[in-house]
Fold:
Amino acid sequence: MSGLLHGPTAEPAAAPRRRRVAVVGVALSDCGRVDGPTPYALHAQAARRALADSGLDRRVIDGFASAGLGTLAPIEVAEYLGLRPAWVDSTSVGGATWEVMAAHAADAIAAGHANAVLLVYGSTARADIKARRRTSNLSFGARGPLQFEVPYGHTLISKYAMAARRHMHEYGTTLEQLAEVAVQTRANAAANPDAMFRDPLTVGEVLSGEMIADPFTKLHCCIRSDGGCAVLLAAEDYVPDTAKAPVWVLGSGTAVSHTTMSEWEDFTVSPAAVSGRLAFERAGLTPADVDLAEIYDAFTYMTLVTLEDLGFCGKGEGGAFVEKGRLLRCGELPVNTDGGGLSACHPGMRGLFLLVEAVRQLRGEAGPNRQVTKPDGRLPEVALASGTGGWFCSSGTVILGRG
Structure:
């Protein structure tokens, strides 16, 4: 026993090398008004297109992540796609799901638990309502902690509206500043042929719209569309065989906050304050290094407060920051360059679309009048995608780069 305690010890085994992880394929399915295909078909369409975009053989895929469809997601969707993955993820935390899944997948690939992970999503939310297969109401049930709010008719949108009103009270944020988010996002959508709404907006039009939940009029709220997308992540070993230059995962962070509003300590701080800090620390970067940001925008306030919490401006300064065209494609910090959930598409959980757009911008594939460039004309080098779930209940932030 004494020898075990005090005798010579072997050198500790070297930690296994963590592999670099790249996004090697991205694609959208048909989006917008899509009345024919099922959600499964949109998953398949996006997956095939992302695989073709990567140039890899489908047999390299040994990991799969999906949420929101099927009784045993992602098993049902994987079966539909003809995949038999050895690594799966079905994390479901609302709109942040896909950034959280991307973080999980990158960690798994880096550690050698998977080699290539496909993330895929598809929804016919708009078509289902049109065909009366579902109603427009979204209910998270009345059990558990939510039972204390449901009797009072506390809807999802009202929770965002309450948070926006608190920010306005605390920091003097104005309705006009919130409206600027919608106006600039629509301007970005104007050059995107895939965007559902492309006609210019004015602040006045946003403010004069139908009231949905004070202070949000209709144009403060995301659209309802159909659509899907897919992202393929792979280990660095596969990069030499891919069709396009890799976009590397530089860092990621995740965080959760609350379910009931009474447990949310500060309505003006989202969990992106944690996920963003972790992502920047792990990437070894700062907000000043980011060339463009794709931010979940179910409501205008979500964009504004997330910009603050990610460190692009100080707390309470979001209203002033979004003015003067800063979010435009040619602005100081291009945000939601495809038109976001406010104008381009929002089929339910939009987080995966943020990653697709970020990758396309870094590759220089956005197209005429839509491609972001640095002041000297070069392509962007660093992009951030930040998803938000529930009513600021969860957050996932992923930082991507070309280097």
Summary: The longest strand covers residues 247-256.
